[in-house]
Predict the structure.
Amino acid sequence: MKAYPDTLLIFLSASVFLILLLAVLVFLPRLIRKKEPAKERTIETDSVVGAFHALGTEIRSLKEQLITRERLAAIGEVSAGIAHEFRNPMGVIAGYAKLLLKSFEDSDGRKESALGILKEIEEMNIVMEELLQFSNPGSLKKTNINLTNTINDMLEGMGDEAARSIDFSRSDIIEIKADETLLKQALKNLIRNALDAGDPILKKIWINIEGGSSSGKDGVFIFIRDNGKGIAETDIDKIFMPFYTTKERGAGIGLALVQKIAMGHGGNVSVESREGEGSTFRLFLPND
């Protein structure tokens, strides 16, 4: 698993060296010409420095993405192992609890305990499903989709709370190439996260789509903004880490899965938030 990132980093380093060498061969003779005006030499120097700065920024971004991919892949393998190890014992416990439930009379106080066991097993099954989704979200099957229709279809299946709380008024055709199933999963996770974080009295979520570019790629940004309490500054760098959560329930997989799906599409996900002012998640998907 480490061989691929290391090979790509070596390739990137070699490419940078060759570009630097080429730049020296091309621009150095021009920069040392004494007859040329100083202003022209300054412009050429600034141009070279600017190009190297942009190249360095892009390489740092690629390196961070490679490290993130490697970390997510390793955690995904661990998640799958944990899920498989726990599911069988949980199934046995649930089976015995159901047998106990059938054997108790309605007036028997132990029936409530059996129901409590089944409820906890159900909660654990949800966590196990999240772990399995994270370990293997599925291979990408990109097709041409109308992003507006995809979002509307997804919202229709999210229940009354989402219908009351979400403001999404786009009706124009926005065509992109993406895996519609995985994209819906990522958007659902972001919206559920926004619903959990929203104002408990008057939850409000705004969804918007804008064209733009990221890391040199043209594409679309999907913005999901809530009116919740915001994210603490100490937490904002951790929220995409697998198993990190501030909620009482859940395994902390939802946002990590969003990041994995975004990177699988060649995109990214980020967040802007201030305590007391809500949060805005930004999902970028490239056109290609």
